[in-house]
Structure formats: C-alpha cells, structure tokens
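Input record, target 12 of the design panel.
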C-alpha cells in the first residue's frame, strides 16, 4: 500500500511495533486514550498485557475495550480508570466503584488538559493512514482527542486503514506523532438497541410537533434521542450541529431531509465531534465533505452553538423533578452515564435566535413500576441541568413547557405528562411541599392521547395562523390572562353580567366540569414572541343525552375574522362523536353578531326570544357543510 511506503520513507524512526511503543511509557504515567469507537484497541490491549506497567492512570471520555479487563483484580491493581462519561459496558463496574467518574461539561474538558488541571504524559490515539503530505485524520473521534493529544508529552498513534478519513479540524501531521504503530483492525461499532415501540412512537410524535422545517438539530447520547430521529422524516431542510453522529441519522441523509441549506452557521455542513455506530455510517462519513468534524471546545461551546438560528437541542434524562431539575448521570448513588453535552447545548439553544431545548424521556422505568417524573430527585442523584435551563419536557403523555413559569405551573405541566397512575401522588406531594394550591385538582388519570385528534389550525385575515386544541389544567394562568385582556362589553356579552375577578377558585370549578367528552372546551392560540396567547375559547356543556349548551368568547382584535364560526364546526364534530344531536345557546338580544354566526351555520335553527335574551336550538342534521380543517 502507498501509505506503508510513505511511512517507510518518511517515518522510519517513528514506525515501531505496539510492544516497542508501549515500552516507552513509564510507570506512574497519566495516559489519555482516544474516545469511544475511535479508540486504539490494539494499543490498549498491548498496554494492559505489559505486566511492567504499574500505577498507570487512564483518562478517557467513552470507553469500550477496557470493559474486557475491568473485572480482573490484577488490572485494577495496576491501572486507575477515570472516565468523563460511563458507557454501557462499564456501567456495572462503575456501580461497583471500580471506575472514577469525572463530572464535566464536554466543552470544558479540553481546558482541563490545556491548563494542566489534568496533566497528560502520553496520548494513545488512532488515526487514518497519512496522505502524501503526511496528514492523518482523527476520523470518527475528534471531540476531546485532539486536545488530549496536543497537551500530551508523548503521542503514540495506531495507524489503521479502516479508520474513516473525515473533513474539518481532524487532521494530524506525522510531525505531531512520536511513535506510530501500523495495525489494521475493524473499528469499534456501537449500535444501541432501537426503542421502536409505542412509547417511542408517541414521544416522537410530540417532538415532531415542535420541530419546524429548516431547524438545526442537536441529538444527545442515548437510545431514545437516536430513535426519535425516524419520526422527523417528513420535515424539510433540517440542519445538524451535534456532538455525535449515529446510524439514526442515515435515513434522514438518504431521504434528503437533512440538507443543512438553512443553517446560519456553516451552511451546507453537518458539524459534529464524534461518529458512533455501524460500518455503514462510518463508510458514509468517510471522505464526505458534507461532514465538518471539530473538537468539543468548538462544537459544544454554547456561544458557538448559539450562532445557529433555530437550534433545537434534543436530549434525554433519567429523572425530572416537579420543579424542573434534571438528573442525567446517576441512578441515586450509582453513576450511570455522564453530564456529556446536555448542559452545553441547553444553554447554547437558549441563546440561539428561535432556538430552544427538549428533554425527552419515557414516563416510567423498571417496566412501569417507577415514575421518572418525580416529586424530588432520588437520594444521591445529581442535578446535571438546573431548573433555570429547562424549556420543554416530553414524555409519551405530552409536552410540558417550563421556561418562564413558576413552580405552581411547572408542577401542573409535569404532573400532566407523568404516567396517569402516578399523577395523584405527585400532586399530593406537591401540596405537601406547598408548591401548589391546597385545593388544586390533579390532572385526570386518563390517557389523553385522543385529544391530539382535536388539534387544528385556521389562517385568518392578516396572515395570522390560529392553533386550536382542547384546554388543559396547565392553561390556568393563560386563561386567566385571556379573561383579564377582554373588554367589559365582551365579558358582559358572554356571561350576561359584569365580572371583575376570574379567580383560581373559579378556574378550578371550570376544570372540574371538563371531561373532554360530555363537556369540552377548545382554545385558540396565536404565537406572540416565544410563547402563545389564548385569543378565543369555545365550550359546550351537557344539558341532556342529546343536547349540549355552547358558548364562545373571542378577543376583540380577532372578532369578525371567522373564529367563532370555525369553533362551532370544531365543537360540532366533537359533540357528534360523543353522541350529541343538537346545540343550544343563550345570547343577549343585542348581541346580533353572535346571533348571525349561529343562524348562518344553522339556517333552520329554532329561535325563541325572551325579555333580553334569545334562546337558539340548533340541529346538527341541518348544519351547513364544514370547511376543510388544517390539522
């Protein structure tokens, strides 16, 4: 092969066997090992086999090969293993205290090396063969490997022709390497088992609602974030700025869903630090100019991340408490994974124009026995992400939006997306901690996924789009704000008397009556900056088995735009589904606009005039054809 000739011609003094290279390492050395699937397996095994190597400290971000030795008492006598992230093969050893875990943000680990806070005597890395100019590539492991190499007193590189050659800041010249070992071997593969089940499907459904075309995504470590990708295959022109590329991205590359065209930072390029997966994804990134591999101090720097407009960070967690604290690295006192890239990307996405973060997790663990939405984090659990950093939390039961909300609202948002069997208990604990009102009603224990079918949208004059969905207990503050935004005349027309206070107690009475079948409330929302305003509420309430009473209130700036007419159609569909045949309404005689809305929809409505009010009976069989809804 050409590269062997090049090495023989240019690096004769550096080209050694693995045994010869490892013999250069002194006892008591601090050794950095390249990350994850890019780790130099042959060098690691040779190092461990050399019985003369004693009192060695190893630093690695993600480790796989060392799992072969970590249960050997003689290995533990000679080597101390310090990891920044605990991989699945080493999890049990971590539980048993055989590994020292270093909690650190990925963006800051290189700084620990460069400042000698963590000193490195030797770096063991793996690279692709050199080109004719002497440049090798760190391939699929750039992340903290570049910094570990640059700050080591001695660099030993395994040259492997099976290592992909990647573009970006991945190149290492042979002059930077002290000793090189030519040893071909298959690259480590790591394909997490797919969570392709009903829970993942539902979480993916909710995540896809928040991801717009043209967004730039970060996908965190773990099975679930990786699985979520397949539910984004209907999106267009997505971009990628992420720590790790996995096989989960392949279908989106192949379907041209990921184009990177609309990225504001490095358009046209996938920005990443690592690649972990199968031979298929390694072949895809090999010499592919679409991929731009950079080190972690760039990829994970929140100020760099923020240069991507509409950056959406999607990561997972082990637990989320009712105030919004997130644990990612430990199960109680047992260290399970690591802080990784989550905090870096949550903070970067919060500074991104139009960006935000999503924490996605199943609602339960241990086959449904334990809630992962908890009243407080488990004893010993670490807070990787603080209350102030969290935006959206998603489980298979819905979306909780926490940013800018107080503890009361957070409790209700998170209890609502917990597994139904744990909701009452969570609310009881929240009452005990005085997080919520003493009379607060718990969310229903019913699975409300069917409400997804009641979502729709309407574009009105002026170009605004109104989203419609069933009202939820978490809408209390928004609905009260909506009420207080209305003019006295509008309130009087709706309630027939003046109301100046719309209290928590009044809202609780309203929630108590909403069962989403016999009684239903639909709200209309419009985007306003980073949140959504309620601009309309339509309600029907049970009168008898076949008749429901209907009422509306629309904010003044959205009146005469067809909002009430649209709400009638939406509520009629739901009412028919639940066995109703008629609506009735009571309207002030002077409210001619609402009378017109009803009679236009139901030309054969029966109108009964009383003193100051008009009662209208509207039969669904006589309604006009419905317009097509946007869902």
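The sequence produced for target 12 reads:
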């Amino acid at each position: 092969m050409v590269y062997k000739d090049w090495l023989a011609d240019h690096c004769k003094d550096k080209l050694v066997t693995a045994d010869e290279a490892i013999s250069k390492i002194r006892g008591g050395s601090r050794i950095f090992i390249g990350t994850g699937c890019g780790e130099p397996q042959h060098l690691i095994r040779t190092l461990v086999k050399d019985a003369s190597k004693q009192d060695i400290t190893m630093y690695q971000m993600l480790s796989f090969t060392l799992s072969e030795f970590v249960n050997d008492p003689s290995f533990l006598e000679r080597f101390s293993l310090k990891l920044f992230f605990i991989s699945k093969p080493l999890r049990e050893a971590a539980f048993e205290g055989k590994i020292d875990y270093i909690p650190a943000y990925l963006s800051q680990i290189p700084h620990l090396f460069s400042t000698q806070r963590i000193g490195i005597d030797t770096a063991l890395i793996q690279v692709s063969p050199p080109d004719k100019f002497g440049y090798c590539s760190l391939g699929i492991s750039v992340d903290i490997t570049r910094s570990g190499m640059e700050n080591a007193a001695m660099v030993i590189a395994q040259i492997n022709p099976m290592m992909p050659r990647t573009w970006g800041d991945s190149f290492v010249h042979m002059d930077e390497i002290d000793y090189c070992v030519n040893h071909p071997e298959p690259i480590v593969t790591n394909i997490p088992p797919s969570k392709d089940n009903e829970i993942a499907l539902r979480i993916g459904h909710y995540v896809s609602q928040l991801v717009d075309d043209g967004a730039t995504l970060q996908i965190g470590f773990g099975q679930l974030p990786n699985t979520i990708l397949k539910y984004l295959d209907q999106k267009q022109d997505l971009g990628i700025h992420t720590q790790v590329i996995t096989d989960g991205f392949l279908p989106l590359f192949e379907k041209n869903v990921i184009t990177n065209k609309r990225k504001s930072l490095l358009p046209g390029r996938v920005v990443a630090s690592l690649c972990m997966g199968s031979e298929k994804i390694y072949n895809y990134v090999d010499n592919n100019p679409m991929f731009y591999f950079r080190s972690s101090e760039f990829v994970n720097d929140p100020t760099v991340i923020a240069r991507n407009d509409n950056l959406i960070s999607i990561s997972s967690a082990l637990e989320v408490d009712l105030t919004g604290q997130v644990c990612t690295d430990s199960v109680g006192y047992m260290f399970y994974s690591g802080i990784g890239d989550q905090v870096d990307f949550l903070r970067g996405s919060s500074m991104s124009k139009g960006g935000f973060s999503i924490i996605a997790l199943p609602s339960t663990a241990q086959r449904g026995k334990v809630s992962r939405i908890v009243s407080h984090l488990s004893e010993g659990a670490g807070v990787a992400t603080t209350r102030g950093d969290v935006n959206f939390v998603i489980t298979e039961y819905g979306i909780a939006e926490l940013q800018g909300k107080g503890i009361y609202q957070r409790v209700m948002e998170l209890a609502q997306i917990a597994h139904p069997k744990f909701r009452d208990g969570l609310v009881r604990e929240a009452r005990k901690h005085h997080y919520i009102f003493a009379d607060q009603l718990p969310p229903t224990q019913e699975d409300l996924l069917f409400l997804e079918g009641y979502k729709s949208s309407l574009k009105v004059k002026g170009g605004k789009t109104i989203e419609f969905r069933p009202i939820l207990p978490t809408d209390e503050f928004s609905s009260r704000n909506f009420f207080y935004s209305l003019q006295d005349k509008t309130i009087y027309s709706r309630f027939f008397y003046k109301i100046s206070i719309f209290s928590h107690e009044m809202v609780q009475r309203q929630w108590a009556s909403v069962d989403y079948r016999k009684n239903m409330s639909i709200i209309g929302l419009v985007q306003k900056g980073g949140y959504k305003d309620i601009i309309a509420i339509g309600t029907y309430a049970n009168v008898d088995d076949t008749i429901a009473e209907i009422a509306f209130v629309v904010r003044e700036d959205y009146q005469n735009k067809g909002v009430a007419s649209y709400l009638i159609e939406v509520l009629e569909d739901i009412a028919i589904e639940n066995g109703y045949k008629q609506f009735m309404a009571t309207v002030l005689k002077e409210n001619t606009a609402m009378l017109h809305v009803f009679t236009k929809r139901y030309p054969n409505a029966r109108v009964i005039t009383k003193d100051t009010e008009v009662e209208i009976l509207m039969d669904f069989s006589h309604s006009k054809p419905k317009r097509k809804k946007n869902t």
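The domain at 2-182 is CATH 3.40.1080.10 (Glutaconate Coenzyme A-transferase).
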